[in-house]
Predict the structure of Anti-sigma factor family protein.
Amino acid sequence: MTGNARRSGPPWSVDLLADLHAGVLDPQTEAELRPLVDSDPEARAVLAALDATLEDLRNLPPIPMPREVAERIDKALAEEARPAAPVIDFNQAKARRAKRLGWGAGLLAAAAAAVGIAVVVIPSGNTPGDNVAQPDKTTTAPAPGATPPGATGSPGKLPAVRGENFGPVFGDVLKAQNYGPLENQEQLADCLRGANIQASKPLGVSPITLNDRNAVMAILPAGSPGAYRIVVVDPETCGPDNPDGVLANTTIEP
């Protein structure tokens, strides 16, 4: 934690309230602090402002990667794939670029919301041959509680993830609050407890498929600005006594 030091009573530091809101405090500290903060009108106002910021984040539209950025990435990957460098398959390098572009759309939206930047999506007039990175199938984000569209854009299909390439579905999941078979936050928390992951309210949650296996993906705060923790669970087997119910657990940094 940075900034103001923690205090044992009002006025509370903004950093301390942000840690409490993100769910990164240890259980004992949170249990002691929560009733004190709930009785302080100024502290409740700060927590309400943090809730509003997260809601704005979920409502951001998809953001395409600028063409010049995509061209620079292509050039850098082509240089990386030259025979003089360590042996790297060019197709693998292209796949890595696609993964970077996927992360870029989601993280750029998150960064824009964090600093209050108004983002305008410019319609593209390019022909099919132009090298322009596009957002994940220019679909609108699903309303909270609705199943988001698939990563391939096919109606009714869940977003599909291979390996740990969560970039293409990051934006859709971040905007969703759909627990699917888990039904609610409490059941998700039980699943995370099985892998000793401290539960907090997810920034976004949605059913997906992971390597063709039905799963639920949750995006959690990672404790530092711009960092996210991605956890994927098997809704059929996960629980407080089954660590194998967590299929993926990774943290991304800004």
